[in-house]
Write a structure and sequence with these properties.
CATH class of the largest domain: Alpha Beta
Strand content: 25-35%
CATH topology of the largest domain: Mannose-Binding Protein A, Chain A
Radius of gyration: 34 Å
CATH architecture of the largest domain: Roll
Largest sheet: 5 strands, mixed
Helix content: 10-25%
Number of helices: 6
Number of strands: 16
Order of helices and strands: HEEEEEEEEEEEEHHHHHEEEE
């Protein structure tokens, strides 16, 4: 019996010694240490004003990454980057809503299954008279604002005098306060792009730009001093005092062959539609 006991004891000691040799002090030092990978954004949140603009943030990453956004108003310009400190560039479009909006730019690395999020907060539209606003690349100045709408007049002006129409025809574009309404009526006429040069010039600026109604131009000239200060501060030419501007308002009923023009002091006049007599600026309306 003693021999059996001693044999069992010896086997137990050998087994214990093997276990202790594999894991000294209860730990395993043979396991490889996994490197830590990350993508850090500085800042992680950025707030912009309501207008369109370009922005950038710093990215500090231990690996390469790609970037994208599912928000249509955010345009990611830097779609990929390498390890190290790099810059993520993006732009935002105008926010014409009453409320601020939030979006996300996602940065990912498929190899490491990493993700990082840049939160973009764009303020609600709050323009004031004289502000320069860019609409799809076309710049305008705020000349009118109330609780429901904001109106911009184009900084650009036609290089030459244009005619209202190539013939002194009668139209239904007689609205004195809403040039967009007049513009829609002219656009409904077959061949308007060729026959109505003043309207065509405005349309060429992009969707939403229109030839202003007569009293929209009056409102514009009321703000001439503020607008000229803004133009000067930003390196643009002043409103030319000698330039008369076409309105979109047909003078049918007063003078069928004429349309209204407006001068620098807000003075109204009539000109034959077919005469290349006046210059053109366009207006764009934003709903607040």
């Amino acid at each position: 019996m003693k021999k059996i006991f001693l044999l069992l004891a010896t086997v137990g000691m050998i087994f214990t010694a093997c276990e202790t040799g594999n894991e000294p002090n209860g730990t395993n030092n043979n396991q490889p240490q996994q490197p830590t990978s990350n993508i850090m954004l500085n800042p992680p949140t950025i707030t912009t004003d309501a207008g369109e603009g370009n922005y950038e943030v710093s990215v500090n990453s231990t690996c390469s990454w790609t970037a994208y956004s599912l928000d249509s108003w955010i345009k990611v310009k830097t779609t990929a980057g390498d390890a190290g400190t790099t810059t993520l560039q993006f732009s935002v479009t105008n926010n014409s809503e009453k409320e601020s909006r939030r979006g996300v730019i996602n940065l990912t690395n498929a190899d490491h299954s990493l993700t990082a999020e840049l939160y973009v907060i764009q303020s609600a539209l709050e323009y004031k008279i004289g502000d320069i606003v860019s609409v799809k690349g076309v710049k305008g100045i705020v000349f009118y604002k109330d609780n429901s709408i904001t109106k911009l007049v184009s900084i650009a002006e036609s290089n030459t005098k244009l005619c209202w129409c190539i013939e002194d025809v009668v139209t239904s574009a007689t609205n004195q306060y809403n040039g967009a309404d007049n513009m829609a009526k002219i656009k409904a006429i077959n061949g308007w792009e060729t026959n109505y040069p003043a309207f065509k010039w405005c349309a060429d600026l992009g969707d939403g730009w229109y030839l202003p109604a007569v009293y929209e131009l009056v409102d514009f000239f009321k703000q001439a001093q503020i607008i000229n200060e803004t133009l000067e501060e930003n390196g643009y030419n002043h409103i030319n005092e000698d330039h008369l501007l076409w309105s979109s308002t047909d003078a049918t009923g007063i003078e069928d062959s004429a349309a209204y023009i407006v001068g620098e002091d807000g003075m109204l006049g009539l000109r034959y539609k077919s005469i290349e007599d006046s210059f053109v600026r366009a207006v764009y309306t934003i709903e607040n």
